[in-house]
Write a structure and sequence with these properties.
The chain is α+β, with helices and mostly antiparallel strands. Helix content is 37%, strand content 22%. A seven-stranded antiparallel β-sheet has the order 3-4-8-9-7-6-5, with helices on both faces. The protein has a four-stranded mixed β-sheet with strand order 11-10-13-14. The protein has a two-stranded antiparallel sheet with strand order 1-2.
Length: 378
């Protein structure tokens, strides 16, 4: 199911005539392709009838595959076959309109659509991607471009070629992890910030000479959508060079800031919340460690309105490669300083254990009237 034309025009496409040379209205689509907004190319692609036909064929192939699941033709059975058993096809979409040529490669098109259906966002996804703004993620060191859809539902993050290659190998296991969470939500909780799409975008405007070549982007949920969070933390479980300047407006704070904060303001959560968070972090870090992934963070926000704790694991694409190993050796040797504290980059297994232990310390369980004693190992 995709949003209709009327829906897309209701979300505020800001139609101003005449269009600028960087805006392109292509016949048959309500989405204006804007060169400054790469997400508009993705939205245009996902709404195109030829693209929709190819995705439909992928779903029909899974529906009528000879390897029938025990669920029959139920929605759950179809989602399972798509996310666990379908080949990882990508759709290479190209369109030329006048002097403008656009290309969008949509990787794991069927699997990501199935994941979006599981999370009930297939309708809003295209609407959101039709417009975006540059977004400065304070505290990041990668230098990658960040965009945020205008309705703030999704974050579009540029990733390097190495990260793109790693994610292509990682993706089938990611879909499996997310499927079992969807199926057994209580038994297998997760706090991974969901990735809902992976695309490679290009365009060439022959009239102006402007072009964009092979921009790899992942589209992620915005954990803080609809929230009012005055304080944010990016936590890795390390105390080495993990102090941010708190005088900077809207700064993302780090582990050492968290330790200073909880000395005077302990983060107290109920037993059931603590159990759920502990189980989710345990499941996710075990999965990421098996995938040889590390250097991920727990993004934490405090919602001022609902007084809720908002959390999600982010930056879980990068695998443990030789450059990370070299960085670990250099930091362990103390060549770059660090006050004798452990390196931020360790092996995936070490990172998992350190991460788990730190998250236990950061969040304190406070008994309430529903408290049930349990063993320390639980």
């Amino acid at each position: 199911m995709t949003p209709g034309v009327s829906q897309l025009f209701q979300i505020g496409l800001d139609l101003v005539y005449p269009l600028s040379p960087s805006e392109h209205l292509i016949a048959g689509s309500p989405v204006i392709v804007r060169e400054e907004e790469p997400s508009s190319i993705i939205a245009f692609t996902l709404l195109d009838s030829e693209f929709r036909k190819k995705v439909h064929e992928m779903f029909e192939e899974a529906r009528f595959s000879s390897d029938k699941a025990s669920h029959g033709n139920s929605t759950g059975g179809l989602i399972e076959r798509i996310m666990l058993h379908s080949p990882g096809h990508y759709i290479n979409f190209k369109r030329t309109a006048g002097q403008m040529k656009i290309t969008c490669q949509v990787f794991y098109a069927a699997q990501f659509e199935a994941l979006r259906r599981c999370n009930g966002c297939e309708d809003s996804y295209i609407e959101s991607l039709s417009r975006c703004n540059p977004y400065v993620a304070k505290g990041g060191k990668s230098g990658s471009a960040f965009l945020r859809t205008r309705d703030e539902r999704f974050i579009i993050k540029e990733i390097s070629t190495a990260e793109a290659d790693a994610f292509l190998k990682f993706a089938p296991f990611y879909f499996e992890h997310m499927f079992w969470n969807w199926t057994y939500r209580e038994e297998r909780p997760t706090v991974l910030a969901k990735i809902f799409g992976f695309c490679r975008v290009s365009f060439h405007n022959k009239a102006t000479g402007k072009k964009l070549k092979n921009m790899n982007v992942v589209i992620m949920e915005n954990l803080f959508y609809g929230r009012k969070c005055s304080r944010h933390f990016d936590l890795k479980g390390s105390e080495r060079n993990r102090m941010a300047d708190e005088t900077v407006a809207n700064a993302v704070l780090l582990d050492e800031n968290m330790l200073m904060y909880i000395r005077d303001n302990p983060i107290c959560i109920r037993q059931q919340t603590k159990r759920h968070l502990h189980a989710a972090i345990w499941n996710d870090t075990l999965f990421l460690s098996k995938m040889n992934v590390m250097d991920y963070s727990l993004l934490v926000g405090f919602d001022d309105n609902s007084k809720e704790l908002v959390v999600g694991i982010i930056d879980f694409i990068r695998t443990f490669t030789w450059d990370k190993q070299l960085e670990s050796w250099v930091k362990e040797a103390g060549i770059l300083g660090g006050g004798g504290k452990g390196p931020t980059i360790v092996s995936p297994k070490q990172y998992k254990n350190r991460f788990r232990e730190a998250m236990k310390r950061y969040f304190m369980m406070v008994p309430d009237k529903f408290y049930v004693p349990f063993d320390d190992g639980e």
